[in-house]
Amino acid sequence: MNISNIPNIKHTDSGNFFLLAGPCAIEGEEMAFKIADRLMQITDDLKIPLVFKGSFKKANRSRIDSFTGIGDEKALKILQKVGAHYNIPTVTDIHESSDAALAAQYVDVLQIPAFLVRQTDLVVAAAETGRVVNLKKGQFMSPESMKHAVQKVLDSHNENVMVTDRGAMYGYQDMIVDFRGIPTMRQFATTVLDITHSLQQPNQASGVTGGKPELIETIAKAGIAVGADGIFVETHFDPAHAKSDGANMLHLDYFEDLMKKLVAIRQTINQF
């Protein structure tokens, strides 16, 4: 997929990786705009193509009392408003086939969660909207097997598909990134590395996912070094009080420094 096919994406001629970035979940309009505004400043300065990310609902929570959203259409309208205000593309994840047509009215990229990437009806429903489809690699799947998920999108007459690696399960409560998978998946689709979910520690006794955000920079540098086309990162100005996945998000204050380092690595890689 040529990333220029993503509507309103900027800086595609910069030679940089592209970025899917934003909060885990849309908690409200003010927080979404606060994060988007800072991301725009950083990515415009560094010439990084940006897709703003935010989940309109969180359907795959461990506990019934976990935050799931502020209301589907309310959150989707906030994403639409952010996209229109900054003239940038937006991405959100969907969990049921009926979500596809709804979300496609408001965002430019539909993301299939890792747990659901083998759900044929869901993948096909996303593809048939004509929106760009981002398939997150199942934690239980090999890189090679993701070609079949990609083929489902292609067979649905949609060539705008990418895959995102978010690590593989190691035991019950840890995630490991096998960097050999990035060149493998790049053979059949544009490939992104999720540098925050790859550091999750799921299945905690508390029912709240943990993480190792101190390793975000390490994972990100390695991903760029081995040729990832894009980087996926969740960020928040107050991760400790974020309503979803705060344990593995990157603090917004550290975002610019990390992007500068990754751009420098990408510039070096481009010379070879």
Descriptive labels:
272 residues; alpha/beta; two-stranded antiparallel ribbon; globular
Walkthrough of the structure:
With 272 residues, this protein is α/β, with parallel strands linked by helices. 33% of the residues lie in helices and 18% in strands. It contains 8 helices and 13 strands. The chain has helices spanning 29-46, 72-86, 97-104, 120-128, 146-155, 181-186, 216-225, 255-269, and strands at 18-22, 50-53, 90-93, 109-112, 132-136, 161-165, 168-169, 175-176, 190-194, 200-201, 210-211, 230-236, 250-251. An 8-stranded parallel barrel has the order 1-2-3-4-5-6-9-12, surrounded by 6 helices. The chain has a two-stranded antiparallel ribbon with strand order 7-8. Helix 4 (120-128) crosses helix 5. The model is unreliable at 203-208 (pLDDT under 50).
Largest sheet: 8 strands, parallel, barrel
Question: What are the segments in which pLDDT stays under 50 over at least 5 consecutive residues?
Answer: 203-208
Mind telling me the C-alpha Rg? 17 Å
Q: What is the averaged pLDDT score?
A: 92
State the total count of DSSP E strands: 13
Helical residue percent? 25-40%
Order of helices and strands: EHEHEHEHEHEEEHEEEHEEH
Q: Distance between termini?
A: 22 Å
Strand order of the largest sheet: 1-2-3-4-5-6-9-12
Strand-helix topology:
Elements: E1 18-22, H1 29-46, E2 50-53, H2 72-86, E3 90-93, H3 97-104, E4 109-112, H4 120-128, E5 132-136, H5 146-155, E6 161-165, E7 168-169, E8 175-176, H6 181-186, E9 190-194, E10 200-201, E11 210-211, H7 216-225, E12 230-236, E13 250-251, H8 255-269
Parallel strand pairs: 1-2, 1-12, 2-3, 3-4, 4-5, 5-6, 6-9, 9-12, 12-13
Antiparallel strand pairs: 7-8, 10-11
